[in-house]
Amino acid sequence: MKINKIIYWVSTVIIFLFEGVMPALFGGSEESRSGMSHLGYPYYFGVALICFKVAGAIVLILPVFKGRIKEWAYAGFTFDFIFASISHAAIDGIGMMAFFPIIILAILGVSYFYYHKIQKESHRN
Questions:
Q1: Domain tally, the chain
Q2: pTM (two decimals)
Q3: Of all helices (H) and strands (E), which one includes residue 51?
């Protein structure tokens, strides 16, 4: 069970850093605003996205949140990564910017899988 918790926490912390800490620190930067504009999104959409990313990252990282709320956070990030990949592919073509969200989605999938694996193990004990 210890290795499962390590895998879960490492993958979850990576998501927390990419989707919680980085948007909170750099989401209002000129580079971030120009990136959203480049993809055709209005400024207010970027602000809302930052708020939801930070909230979702907090839900994933804090063990006090369980069940349905955590499922919603995982689902929200899944949609975010899929649509980010589609947006980059549509505007800039298939390249690293289109694949990077899919890589982060895979890390999110690891976190999700091990979250449920740990939950099942804790219910058996």
A1: 1
A2: 0.89
A3: helix 43-61
